[in-house]
Amino acid sequence: MPRPAWALVIQGIWAAYSFCHAPSKTDSAGNVTGYGNLYGNLLDYVISAALIFYVLTIIGIFLLRRKQPHVERPL
Asked: What is the average pLDDT across 3-26?
């Protein structure tokens, strides 16, 4: 199986796990009255991962400019 396919499989497993283990809200008697904000939790994970990759991209640009200063750059 190609590497991108493995990434999609792992992402699907993580999403299914997150969906099946949604936090539940209970009343004082212990009865389940609803579920937490699952969409908000998943959105937090996605935003955090995207931010990490944006920061790594910016760091990579600075590293390449330091290691290869004479490479032609686009305008």
From this structure: 82
Q: Which H or E run includes 33?
A: strand 32-35
Question: Beta strand pairing status for 24-26 and 32-35?
Answer: antiparallel
Backbone angles phi, psi at 25, to 5 degrees: -100, 135
User: How far apart are the C-alpha atoms of 36 and 13, rounded to whole Å?
Assistant: 20
* pTM over the 0.85 mark: no
Confidence class of residue 31 from pLDDT cuts 50, 70 and 90?
confident
How many Cα neighbours within 13 Å face the side chain of 36? 11
Listing DSSP states for 60-73 in one string gives HHHHHHHH-TTS--
